[in-house]
Queue: 2 jobs
Job 1
Amino acid sequence: MFAFKKTLTLAVAATTLAAAAPALAQDSGATIGFLGGFTGPIESLTPPIFAGAELVAKEVNEQGGILDGELKIESADGACDATAAAAAADRLINTNSVVAVVGGLCTGETIGGFNGSGLSGNVVFVSPASSAPALTTLEDNDLVYRTTPSDALQGEKMAAMLLAKDVKDIAITYVNNDYGKGFADSLSAAFTAGGGTVAANLAHEDGKADYRAELGNLVASQNLVILAYANASGNTILRQAVESGNFTTYVGGDGMVGDALLNGIDASAVEGMIATRAGAPTGDATQTYQKLATDAGIEANATYAPQAYDAAFLLALAIEKNGSTDREGLSAALRDVASAPGEKIMPGEWEKAKELIAAGTDIDYEGAGGSMDFDEAGDVDGIIVELAVEGGKFVEKGLID
């Protein structure tokens, strides 16, 4: 049905399949893993993302369970780091024997976790937050997917937003990893193509206490774009940029959208700061999710919480469709439940979906974050929204055309 772009050579694929665990010894129910940065540069963003996935388990178990048993979620800390994620994924896959993984969150975390144990274990990963373009070309034997759009789109939309605001020049500083570089490359190309000037485009290393030297190389523009993480270099660079007085406009990507970004910063000094992140279209599916999340005491629009809900719901549907906790066949089942043809399933409709699957009826999940029709690379289309800092908090302003 698909001519998958992200494939391995026949020799590697054969080795992978031979090493894959064919089935997990579980009489009923299923366990999926959640790999995310509970510590590290996105630690303030991770808990509400995890809560989005946990909500799915609650709903599934209240509506009849999965494979005649309970859906469980085992979490592991990938620390937004490839090495830590490899160890965390190994525990999930080889000790906890999860069927599949929601995650990672940072792109390096996803790649590190998958390459470490996911590929050899034939484990499907569905990331709600790994947005770097590098994931599109990962050689993964059709096992890695994401429910958020690529930064190839976010960079284009950020450029369009800035140009529409008559911002004619920008200085970019980005964290030196797959996420930062991919985002910066996309933004720079789109901004330049639209007639803007990229006065500086410089990488920085995460985890430093002082970025004043780097900021000194960015003063060719007063419009500073920071593509980094709220709990790490993003906060430090923004604070020191404000202290320098050299910039008048501040812009951030999705990794910056968290309350922790403003720790230690005079909120009035960054009032009106703008940012972008993945959003959700208006419609019944989105509204249904928002009500479910709100009723459960979850921040419905927290960054990547809707996408985590979608990732967990899709994996649960795929496991039920596959009919067992076997890892073999799960990626094909995932594609089946995520796309047309089929009867529409919205967030919260587990019982309905389970009955349709049992009856042999095709289903098509419509997600909290929009349509989940995976392309050949495991990517989805999506929309990007604008946010602004108002009164010390990020407020969503609407869709970027």
Note: DSSP finds twelve helices and 15 strands in the chain.
Job 2
Amino acid sequence: MNFLNIKLGGIVKDFIYQLSIPNSFLVLFTIGYFLDFNLNKDELKALGIGMFVKFLPGIILFLLLAFLFDTSQLIVKIIAIGSILPTPMVAVVYSNERRLNPNLASVFITMSIIIGVVLMSIVMLKW
């Protein structure tokens, strides 16, 4: 829409804004509904491996971008921060829909939010 220079009218903007208001509450409610920290040994192992697989490539990409490119460019910052973002809430919905383990997915999302916020804070403070 930006490339085609399409501008939304006030009514459309207001309608989309009204749809977005309950979004944060619904995401947090859904995660909290499935959140259960009573994980068995195999689930804890899967959680640790998942966190490692999720954040290690992001951290490596972030460091490569920081050393190879000019970090004053906005696009480099966006890609670098995007590589360490938390897992989206849709993982809980997907795991519930596929009859996987929504409790593990909820804990995974919660942990990735905590780790992601810490990493993004470090990045923003150092840049």
Note: The chain has six helices and no strands.
